[in-house]
Amino acid sequence: MIIAVIGGGHCSTEIYELAREVGEEIAKAGAILICGGLFGVMEAACRGAKEAGGTTIGILPGKIKNEANAFVDIPIVTGFNEARNVIIVRSADAVIAIDGEYGTLAEIALALKFGKPVVGLKVAFAIPRVAQVTTAGEAIKLLLNRIGAI
Known about the structure:
This protein is of the alpha/beta class. It has helices spanning 13-28, 41-51, 84-91, 102-113, 136-146; strands at 2-7, 32-35, 56-60, 74-77, 94-98, 118-121, 130-133.
């Protein structure tokens, strides 16, 4: 199972810690984490997954593997900039959105269009079919339930 974590490339300390907890919960569930591979929410989630012994994939916007944050196991270079979001969402079985802005909103829209379950944590947008939860544990439990993994 592959779970995408989407969110901003810059974030507050509070959001960083929340994203790190999400990554940890993904690894504990035995899932692989996929994200945009850069910094902010993406780095925090990858860090949490790595600290819990998980595997991380970063779908990078540029053309250089070294752009990936230090916690990405498998960097995939695309040269696609924001268009890489399609690859992230298509590759995932489910999506967790954390905070973010318009790029995150675009990824949420793609996920919903592709029929992927989406859970939001601290997302500023009220979007039908996106369950808002408050903890990393709730997010993972809800997603696993939605995709029939529990």
